């Protein structure tokens, strides 16, 4: 493969990975999957080799762990603060639907509002509903930190693989 093409593929892969990494700011954005897809595309185009397969397997494990732990962290924190499971389901569904129809920012705004209203409907006082909503937001913060760290690890592994 010509050097210019190899360099172009590497730069494009890095740009896509960084897009995925910084997209993680939005809870419903599949940034880890985008980073994983960029690594997969890089491997398909450039060849995996033994090292590539091992690193890609680790990248895959990190992506799966991050996506699984992401939801668990957000839900756990809200549950720790007293959220009803149905409220979390409603908030998650609302976030996804609003994100798809309007924007991820809309989903970010809608989810806590729906959680708050659902908890009020469950019989909690305004103060209790605010605390439960705060729990969701704390969970989002921890989940973002975890996703961002894992995303950086995935990109770091790809850098080792690509050079």
- Tell me the Rg in angstroms: 19 Å
Number of strands: 0
Spatial gap, N to C terminus: 15 Å
Mean pLDDT over the residues: 92
The amount of beta strand, in percent, is under 5%
Figure out the total of helices: 6
- Low-pLDDT regions: none
Q: Write down the secondary-structure element order.
A: HHHHHH
What's the overall geometry? elongated
Count of domain modules: 1
Query: What structural class should be given to the helix and strand makeup?
Result: mainly alpha
Portion of residues in helices?
Answer: over 70%
User: Main β-sheet: number of strands, strand sense, barrel status?
Assistant: none
How would you sum up this structure in a few lines?
This protein is mostly helical. The chain has helices at residues 3-23, 31-46, 49-80, 85-101, 104-121, 126-162. It has one domain (3-162).
What does this structure look like?
With 163 residues, the chain is mainly alpha-helical. It has helices at 3-23, 31-46, 49-80, 85-101, 104-121, 126-162. The relative contact order is 0.17. The mean pLDDT is 92.
Task: Give the helix/strand layout.
Layout: H1 3-23, H2 31-46, H3 49-80, H4 85-101, H5 104-121, H6 126-162
Helix pairs in contact: 1-2, 1-6, 2-3, 2-6, 3-6, 4-5, 5-6
């Amino acid at each position: 493969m010509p050097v210019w093409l190899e360099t172009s593929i590497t730069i494009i892969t890095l740009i896509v990975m960084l897009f995925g990494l910084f997209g993680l700011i939005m809870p419903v954005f599949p940034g880890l999957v985008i980073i994983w897809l960029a690594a997969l595309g890089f491997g398909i185009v450039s060849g995996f080799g033994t090292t590539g397969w091992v690193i890609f397997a680790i990248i895959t494990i990190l992506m799966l762990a991050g996506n699984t732990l992401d939801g668990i962290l957000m839900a756990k924190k809200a549950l720790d603060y007293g959220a009803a499971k149905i409220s979390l389901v409603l908030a998650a569904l609302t976030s996804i639907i609003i994100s798809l129809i309007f924007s991820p920012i809309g989903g970010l705004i809608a989810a806590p509002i729906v959680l708050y209203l659902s908890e009020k409907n469950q019989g909690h006082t305004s103060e209790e509903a605010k605390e439960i909503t705060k729990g969701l937001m704390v969970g989002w913060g921890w989940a973002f930190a975890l996703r961002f760290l894992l995303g950086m690890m995935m990109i770091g592994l790809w850098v080792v693989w690509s050079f």
